[in-house]
Amino acid sequence: MSEIIFPEWWGKDSISHFVSSAHKNCIATLINYRDKPIIDAMIVVNDIFNEASQIRFNIKNEPLLPLFFGRSHGCYLGAVRLSTSGQVAESYALMRACIENGLYALYIQSEPTDREDIPKRTKIWMERHDNEENTRRCRKEFTYANVSNNLKKHVKELWRHISKLYTFAIDYGAHPNIQGAITTSEISENGVRTDLLTSGDNLVCMLSIQRTVQVGICVLSIYELIFEDRFRHIEEKLRELHTYIEKI
């Protein structure tokens, strides 16, 4: 990429100023914490996502899997950007989306596909927006309880980790709950002050970075269940990261 030449007005309006500040925070966080193991883990998680993206998909039996996998990876990177920039509460919304994409992928791929017609779950998901009836049917089929319990049937320990991370994400920013609302806010007699960008040396910022990495590890573990033998050449890298999720 060629060097960006910023116009004279850049940084003088509220949006370009915010974007510049967030970008600087990302750089500062990664530089200042580069010697911490959690940053190494963050990088390895992304490297595994990149390697797994090269796995050959079965177009007939896995038509939607590349979509869910790509969105999981994108949500992980989005959470990385937000957590390192100091948009702490907002990062949890992407962590939640990362988890849900993985759970949806497993739920759809868990349905038998040894028939010629489109499997029921695939059909329901793809036809969600056709009409109101289909929308209601999709919402009923793809509840969090359904997709979560499906993971529980596969690996109970991974389900426990995912459940804790999902609840944490809901509490701390993926839903307007009190913990997320006050994470980077200060309430006083003068009113409420909210920091839209928190410095990287803040404890809540470091926690969001840690949670981002843990979500990435657990979601990759979901895809490992789906890919099975195709994941063997990178499973050892993922296994080495499991120390980061043992105490969730």
How are the elements arranged and paired?
Blueprint: H1 14-32, H2 37-52, H3 65-85, H4 88-109, H5 120-126, H6 132-141, H7 144-154, H8 156-174, H9 178-182, E1 185-188, E2 191-194, H10 203-227, H11 235-239
Antiparallel strand pairs: 1-2
**How would you classify the helix and strand content by structural class?**
mainly alpha
Give helix % range: 55-70%
Number of domains: 1
Which residues sit in consecutive blocks of at least 5 with pLDDT less than 50?
none
- Terminal CA distance reads 39 Å
Radius of gyration: 20 Å
Mean pLDDT: 93
Question: How many helices?
Answer: 11
Kindly estimate the percentage of residues that lie in beta strands according to DSSP: under 5%
Number of strands: 2
Helix-strand pattern: HHHHHHHHHEEHH
Query: Looking at the structure, what is the overall shape?
Result: globular
Largest beta-sheet characterization: 2 strands, antiparallel
Strand order of the largest sheet: 1-2
Describe the 3D structure.
This protein has helices at residues 14-32, 37-52, 65-85, 88-109, 120-126, 132-141, 144-154, 156-174, 178-182, 203-227, 235-239, and strands spanning 185-188, 191-194. The protein is mainly alpha-helical and 248 residues long. It has one domain (21-103, 144-244). A two-stranded antiparallel ribbon has the order 1-2. Strand 1 (185-188) and strand 2 form a beta hairpin. Helix 4 packs parallel to helix 10 (203-227) and helix 8 runs antiparallel to helix 10. The chain is globular and about 60 Å long. The two termini are 39 Å apart.
